[in-house]
Amino acid sequence: MSPSSNPFLRGYQNLRIDRSLCITYEDDCPPVWRPLHPSQAHLPDDQVALFPCVFSNDFALITEGQDIPEDLEAQCQTEGVVRTVVYGVSGDDFGQPVHVGDTYSEEAAREVVRQLSFETGFYSRCWEISSAHLTAEAGRFLAELADIATPSGFLFVAFRIPYSPAIGVKLIATPWTDANLQLVEGITAEQLRQEHRAKGMPESLVEVLHLAALADVRMLVFDADAAVLYGLPLYDDE
């Protein structure tokens, strides 16, 4: 299942920080951006910024005060000066890599990542969506589960909300990825899907629960008065 087909996914995924150097060289050439070679990745910013360097198409090496192996130096044919150090924040948006922005310290970059991250266990794990995303058959099936002790093998618990026609679902052992389900239950996501079908669960309920659980949603409420979630199928009343 591609990330772009799951409307429950929110925010950037796989946020990461990359340190790069803005390097100037010959007077009539625009600046270039290069990462430090891994052998110098330990150097703090104050031993990099405003220092002379050599660089190739792939990396840069600080030359002042550093011992550089001859084979590495031979790969760098251009001399320059590091004008500034930048920490770029990037991530994935529906499976596509995107550049989020640049900061001028690692601390600032980490704060950007913290602000943009949907941290598991804190927020953005509870959704209220229209019950029109379920067929009438699926709605009845879920209501019946809410009135009994939902079988543990379902990996969710259905419940009624007092003084409301809405029905809630508590999803268990999310995200429903192969890696996590193998660790927790010893099954794959497809095996869980087939188990749900084998127990008579209507397909519209199977699909919406698995999409939500794959996105690490923990609480899902179906309400006729709630908003429609763009990207999910809608079903007419039967």
> Taking all residues together, what is the mean pLDDT?
90
Counting helices, strands and paired strands, the structural category is alpha+beta
The main sheet comes to: 6 strands, antiparallel
**Rg (C-alpha, Å):** 26 Å
Order of helices and strands: EEEEHEEHEHEEHHHE
* Tally of discrete structural domains: 2
How much helix, percentage-wise, in residues? 10-25%
- Strand content of the residues, in percent? 25-35%
Task: Report how far apart the termini are.
Answer: 29 Å
Shape: elongated
* Uncertain stretches: none
DSSP helix count? 6
Q: How many E strands? A: 10
Structural features, described:
With 238 residues, the protein is of the alpha+beta class. It has 2 domains: 13-116, no CATH class; 126-223, no CATH class. The chain is 23% helix and 28% strand. The chain contains 6 helices and 10 strands. Strands 1, 2, 3, 4, 5 and 6 form a 6-stranded antiparallel beta sheet that branches. The longest helix is centred in the last third of the chain and has 12 residues, at 203-214. 21% of the residues are buried.
Quick synopsis:
By secondary structure, the chain is α+β, with helices and mostly antiparallel strands.
List keywords for this structure.
238 residues, 2 domains, six-stranded antiparallel β-sheet, four-stranded mixed β-sheet, 10 strands, DUF5983, ABC transporter substrate-binding protein
